[in-house]
Amino acid sequence: MKFIYQTWWKVLAVVIVLYTLIAGLLLNVPHMPILHETIRNVYFHVPMWMAMFTVFTISVIYSIKYLMNAKPEYDLIAVECANTGVFFFSVGLVTGMMWAKFTWGEFWSNDPKQNSAAIAFLLYCAYLVLRNSIDEEQKRARISAVYNIFAFPVMIVLIMILPRQTDSLHPGNGGNPAFGKLDMDNHMRIVLYPAFIAWSLIGVWIATLRYRISLLEYKKNAID
Amino acid sequence: MSVISQTKHLLKKEILLEWRSKYAFNGVLLYIASTVFVCYIAFNLSAGFTQSKGYPIVWNVLFWIIMLFAAVNAMAKSFMQESRSRMLYYYSIASPQAIILSKIIYNALLMALLSILAIGMYMIFFTNTIGDPLYYFLIVLLGSVSFATVFTMIAAIAAKAGNGGTLMAVLSFPVIIPVILLLIKSSKFAMDGLERSASYSNLGVLAAINVIVVGASLILFPYLWQD
User: What are the entry keywords (chain B) (predicted)?
Assistant: First the structure.
């Protein structure tokens, strides 16, 4: 757990995010009909989902750890990661909607990818509602850990598998090429992949800050 | 006793209890009958509805929505009727896997029976020609079993949280939406009488979801029920 108190990876995350902001807006991108410059949104939209997957994965790992060894810290990590994930989820949805307005013509065009992302959003809102409905701490931690583990594979099926089976406008789904295939000279990768790492680190950073705050609160409320 | 023989005994007990009171079965059957009848009257208020172009689509979707709510009502009872002391008694004699497995099998049987009666009743009120009746019927059976597997685990969580109906709906709907989407899509194919192979991949995903949910229930239920 020492990792979360160290500084180097936070500095690294900020530096790479700054790099992707500048390089993402200035470097050359492939010229496509309809897309034009909106293709740059891939540097900002997709990393949000990567950050979300990272924190949700950490959350489910700590839920599993909680069930194996009921330490209250594990539950705090799981819930704060889920909270951070929900935040990145909303940012990912909003950036996607803005892009959709310029390329598909509507903020929300009943696309399978958008719909199943919205359903997965409800899934994690349900997790937070479930937590609020139980007062007893240990019971809350255990039951919500069970639901978290149950929800994670469903979220993966919803976001990654189902949209690929139908006709979706979203790049990379339903026969549409992802940007990787259009990007012949690998220009975009030198910005996109660092952005994945940087935003994931930022997500972890936010989650650790939230975890540390709630740990302090937990210790303050504890009876010695 | 092994898990299998425990499951058998618990399943027998579930069926026996249900057979004595017939409460869940009759209650849900009446629920389906009233819903179908209300829909029948409501839709026939506007003349010419059955001849309109969207009728087959509405027919298919409406059936699944009725089944969805019937399933929520039927499954919500499955853990709430168990009193705390009875759960403690089970805890001392049976393994948790046997308990959740017996509940899943019992719920699947109940839902399968209910869905057969429901589709019959639905067809009497809402007439429609189905291109591939046998296949449609199989999808209805598969759908009711999928509802049972998903809702059993959710009902266990909701019952533990001690806050029945609302929580059940909130927790289960995001999980059940992919299932119902796949069902509506494949049953529409069957209704239109398309090639059966067109919906194989959908049914494959559905079967995979079932396997994952049953597996997750078996692994997670032991953690859920200890107090």
Answer: Cytochrome c-type biogenesis, Membrane, Transmembrane, Transmembrane helix, Transport
Task: Report how far Cα B170 is from the mean position of its chain's Cα atoms.
Answer: 16
Tokens of A103: 């390329």
Annotate B17-59 with DSSP letters as a single string: HHHHH-HHHHHHHHHHHHHHHHHHHHHTTSTTTTTSTTHHHHH
Q: Distance (Å, rounded) from C-alpha B31 to C-alpha B24?
A: 10
**Listed residue (A117, A63, A133) closest to B168, CA to CA:** A133
Structure confidence by residue, pLDDT tens digits, A152-195? 988 888 888 777 777 777 877 665 666 655 555 567 788 888 99
Least Cα distance to A118 among A141, A98, A146, A90 occurs for A90
Interchain proximity B174–A154, CB inside 8 Å? yes
Angle at A84 between CA A83 and CA A85, to 5 degrees: 90
Selected for mutation to probe chain B from A130, A146, A149, A166 (highest B CB count within 10 Å) is A146
Which of A147, A152, A159 has the highest number of chain B CBs within 10 A, making it the mutation to test binding with B? Answer: A147
Handedness of CA A30, A104, A118, A168 (dihedral sign): negative
Which amino acid is located at B200 in the chain?
Answer: Y
pLDDT of B156 reads 87
For chain A, give the percent of residues with pLDDT over 70: 93
Name the closest residue on chain A to residue B177, using Cα atoms.
Answer: A119
